[in-house]
Design goal:
The protein is an alpha/beta fold. It has a single domain, classed as Alpha-Beta Barrel (TIM Barrel), CATH 3.20.20.10. It contains 10 helices and 8 strands. An 8-stranded parallel beta sheet has the order 7-6-5-4-3-2-1-8. Strand 2, helix 3 and strand 3 form a beta-alpha-beta unit. It starts with a helix and ends in a 6-residue tail after the last helix.
């Protein structure tokens, strides 16, 4: 059994049932993705559009590809035909572009709305007021080619576990409020994507049901 297979098995044993594992394969070669695939993993996350497109073209077609990085509006068209979930929708303008390209591809594109919960200004995302404004906007009400499946967020990069837990708790509270106010009877709004290799255990404890794990599966990232 390869180290990738062993890592996936170990992580899946640690995750409670009902928590979806997204294997973050950014910068990793196809050979390592195939190792994970052969270990039963089918959901992979990429943060660069070109890399995502290249891998989708050359790897097994039953892989679910998630776009987990910051997405530029002019690049949505390249992934719209196949992407399984866009994690980082952080503006109405981006959601409008996704809806437009979804219509061209004749499909409804599942999305998560990204919330800004970290103290770092460099991270993207909506605050709660902006989130409510988006969901109440006339534009959003008319969109027929996007489906909001939940929320996503990234905690501050810090060793302070209490701070991380507090930020994840804030996002869980937002998720619960949004679910109750806008998606009460809609089962598709069900994903809370929070937690990465360094903090997924905290995220799961705070209510995450989708974790994005890369280095704990594939080893440290290769910076290209």
């Amino acid at each position: 059994m390869s180290s990738v297979s062993q890592s996936i098995q170990k992580i899946k044993e640690q995750l409670p049932s009902g928590v979806t594992l997204v294997a973050v394969s950014k910068t990793k070669p196809n050979e390592m993705i195939i190792e994970a695939y052969e270990a039963g993993q089918r959901i992979f996350g990429e943060n660069k559009v070109q890399e995502l497109v290249d891998k989708q073209e050359s790897l097994p077609k039953d892989i679910e590809w998630h776009m987990i990085g910051h997405l530029q509006r002019n690049k949505v068209k390249y992934i719209a035909p196949f992407v399984s979930l866009i994690h980082g929708v952080d503006s109405l303008r981006l959601l409008r572009a996704v809806n437009k390209e979804g219509a061209k591809s004749e499909r409804v594109i599942p999305c998560l709305l990204q919330m800004h919960i970290a103290s770092e200004e460099t991270k993207f995302g909506l605050d709660e007021d902006e989130l409510f404004q988006l969901l109440e906007s006339e534009d959003y009400q008319k969109f027929g080619n996007v489906e909001i499946r939940g929320l996503m967020g990234m905690a501050t990069f810090t060793d302070d576990k209490e701070k991380i837990a507090g930020e994840f708790r804030t996002l869980k509270n937002s998720f619960d409020r949004v679910k109750k106010k806008y998606f009460k009877d809609r089962k598709e709004f069900s994903f809370l994507s929070m937690g990465m290799s360094g903090d997924y255990d905290i995220a799961v404890a705070e209510g995450s049901n989708m974790v994005r794990i890369g280095s704990s599966i594939f080893g440290e990232r290769n910076y290209l």
